[in-house]
Amino acid sequence: MQAKKRYLILFSAGVSLILLFYLQGPASKRTPNRGDDPHPHWPHFSDPLRAFIPWDQTETEDYNVRVSPRHKRDDNSGASKCRMDSCFDFSLCRRNGFKVYVYPQQKGEKISESYQNILSSIEGSRFYTSDPGQACLFVLNLDTLDRDQLSPQYVHNLKTKIQNLNLWNNGRNHLIFNLYSGTWPDYTEDLGFDIGQAMLAKASISTENFRPNFDISIPLFSKDHPRTGGERGYLKYNTIPPFRKYVLVFKGKRYLTGIGSDTRNALYHIHNAEDVVLLTTCKHGKDWQKHKDARCDKDNAEYDRYNYKEMLHNSTFCLVPRGRRLGSFRFLEALQAACVPVMLSNGWELPFSEIIDWHTAAVIGDERLLLQIPSTVRSIHQDRILSLRQQTQFLWEAYFSSVEKIVLTTLEIIQDRVLQHNARSTLMWNRLPGGLFTLPQYSSYLGDFPFFYAVLSVKPQQKFTAVIHAVTPLVSQSQPIFKLLVAVAKSQYCAQIIVLWNCDKPLPAKHRWPATSVPVIVIEGESKVMSSRFLPYDNIRTDAILSLDEDTVLSTTEVDFAFTVWQSFPERIVGYPARSHFWDSNKERWGYTSKWTNDYSMVLTGAAFYHRYYNYLYTQYLPGSLKSMVDQLSNCEDILMNFLVSAVTKMPPIKVTQKKQYKETMMGQTSRASRWADPDHFAQRQTCMNKFASWFGTMPLVHSQMRLDPVLFKDQVSILRKKYRDIERL
C-alpha cells in the first residue's frame, strides 16, 4: 500500500513538471517567427537541393534561399518574374503565325562558329522570316554564347550594342542563346548585360535562376558539334542481359580549389578500379602544380592508362558530375554512347526539362549521397536498364545530335507556348518519332498519327483513297490510266479515286472518265508542279493513300494485297517498285540505282501505300528549297518522300511481291509521263540524292532485304488454296 502511494506521488510530480515546462518553458525560449510549433523542422531528405543545416539555423534568409531557390526568384522584381503572359507580346504572333527574325549581321562584328551554326539553323527552318514586321520572335546577331570575360570569344560592350538595337524593346519577344556565363573564381550566371524581358536559352542554368515556362535549358555542346544531322547513337543492337564490362565510369578533370571541386575530389572514395572506374586528373591549367595534393601523381598516372571512348562504350552507367558550371560535355557524350547518365549536379535544370521526362533516360543522383551511388545503380533491374538505354538513343537522335535539332527543339517549345491550343502532349515529346516530326497543327488526337497506333491499340481505317497523278491529255480509251482506274475501283478497300490533273490541257469532261462503283474526283493540281501530288487535300478522308502514276499497271488483286500489308505497317511506305542507294567511294557521293537485286532502300510512290499524315509533313516540314528543286526538275518527289518517311521511322519501306512487269511496262511507255527514256532523268536523281542527304545532315534511308509475299506464293499446291492467286499469273 505504501509502495502504491509512492508511485502515485512520483507520477503526479512528473505530470506537474511536464505541464509547468509546457506552459512556461517554451514560451520564454520561443524562436522569433516560428509560430506556435515547438518542434524543430528537420530537412526533408527527399529534396535533392536541400542542404544539411542544423534546424536552429533554418530561420536565416540564407537557409531559405537554399531550401527553395525558386522562392528567392519569385520574390525578386523585374525580369526574374517574367512569364509568357507578362513579358511576351502574343499579338505579334497572331498576325502571321510563329515566325522568327534574325537581326542582320553588323560590319566588324565577329561571330563564333557555334553561334553562326545556331543562326544558320534558324534561317534554314520553316519559322524564319526576313521581314521583322512579320516576326513573332527575334534573335540577336550579336554573339552571346560565351560570356566568360577570360574567353577570346567574349564580346565587349555588348550592353551598349544591344540597347542601340531599334527593335530591342527591353528584350520583349527576344530569345538569347548562351552556353557559358561568369568567370573565375565563382562562375556566376550573370551575362554581363541586362536581358530585360528576353527569354534565355541557356546551358548550365540553375533551378534558382530558371524561369519556368519562360526560359529554356539547353545542353552544353562543343564547337565541334555538327550543325545538321549528326552521328546516330552507338547502340547498334540490344544485348540481353544489358550489362557491360563496367558498371560506372567517369574520366575528367579534378578541380583542387574553387567552385565545383567538392564532388570530383570525393570520387576516389567509390572508385574500385574494377567495375567502378572513376578517373580524375589534376594536370590542367597553368599553375596546377602549385595546388597539387598528395593524390595528384597517383591519379594522373591511372588517368593516362585508360582510353575514354573505350570506357564510354563499355559501361552501363556514366557519371555526369558538375564541373565549374552545372552542365558538362559528359552529358551528351553519355547519351550518344547509350551509357545511362548518372547526374550529380544539384540544382541543375536539365536540358529541355519542360518537355522531356528525364527519369526515363537517366538516374538523378544527389551530390551529398555520393557514397550511395554504386549500390543504387547496382540495384536497378536489367529490364529497367534496357529501357533507360533505349531512351537515351531516342532522345539523342531526336533532340541533341546536332545544333539544328537543339535550336529547332527550342523554337518548337516556344511555339507550343504561343499556340497553346495546338501544343504537343508529353507522349509526343517522349516517344518515337519525337516532337519535331509530330506536328500538332495536323491533329491534337494521337490516334491520327500512324506511329502511335501500336501505343494506343488503334487500327487504321479499312478503306483507302487512290490518288492518280495525271500529266498527259486523254486521247484514247486504251491509255493506261483508264485500265488503272477500273482495276483500282474494283478493290473492296477502295473508298474513292482522286485524279490529280497536272496536265497543261483543260480538265476533261466528266463523260470521258469510265463509270466506276466508287466516286472519281478530278481536281486540278496547284501550279501544275510535282510537289502538288503530296499536298494534304481536304478530299482525302481515309488514313491510307494509294499513290499512283498514270501509267502504272496494277491488278485489283495486287492492290488488295498491298493494302492488307500496309494495314500491318501503317507508319511505312508499302508498295511495288523498289530502288536502292549506295555510297560511291570513288566520287565520294551517294549513288542511285534501279538494278533488280535482293537489296532496296526506297519504294517509289508510283505504286505505293502510305499514311496521309506524310502529305501534311511533306508540305509543312520540308523547306521550300527542296520542294522547289523537285518542281523545277519535275523529278525526285518520290525520293524525297522516301527520305522523309525513313527519317521519321528510322526504318526501311516494305516491298511486296516482286513485279518485274512494272519496270518493263514503264520502259515501254512513250508518253511524256514516262521519264525512263530521258537520259537526264537518272543523272538528276543522283543529284537529288546528295542534295537531300545534305539537308537532312545524314543519310536517313535504310537498306532492307525483306519482301512480303502472299501465303503459299509460288508454293507447289493447288491454285485454289491461294487467296491472291491472280498475282502468280502476272
For this entry, give a set of tags:
about 30% helix, 23 strands, alpha/beta, 5-stranded parallel beta sheet, about 725 residues, 8-stranded mixed beta sheet, single chain, globular, signal-anchor, transferase
Round the Cα radius of gyration to an integer and report it: 32 Å
Structural class: alpha/beta
Number of strands: 23
Oligomer: single chain
Query: Helix tally?
Result: 24
Q: What is the makeup of the main sheet?
A: 8 strands, mixed
Outline the low-pLDDT stretches. 25-77, 663-673
Distance between the termini: 114 Å
The strands making up the biggest β-sheet line up spatially as 15-14-13-16-21-17-22-23
Outline the fold blueprint:
Layout: H1 2-28, H2 61-67, H3 69-75, H4 84-87, H5 91-96, E1 100-102, H6 113-123, E2 137-139, E3 146-147, H7 158-163, E4 174-178, E5 180-181, E6 199-202, E7 216-217, E8 246-253, H8 261-265, E9 276-281, H9 288-291, H10 296-305, H11 308-313, E10 315-321, H12 330-336, E11 340-344, E12 363-364, H13 373-378, H14 382-400, H15 403-418, H16 426-430, H17 453-456, E13 464-470, H18 480-489, E14 494-501, E15 520-524, E16 544-549, H19 556-568, E17 574-575, E18 578-584, E19 589-593, E20 602-603, E21 607-611, H20 613-620, H21 624-633, H22 637-649, E22 654-656, H23 660-668, H24 679-696, E23 707-708
Parallel strand pairs: 1-2, 2-4, 3-5, 4-6, 6-7, 8-9, 8-10, 10-11, 11-12, 13-14, 13-16, 14-15, 17-22, 22-23
Antiparallel strand pairs: 16-21, 17-21, 18-19, 18-20
Helix pairs in contact: 2-3, 6-15, 12-14, 21-24, 22-24
Domain Glycosyl transferase: 464-713
Cofactor: Mn(2+)
Pathway: Protein modification; protein glycosylation
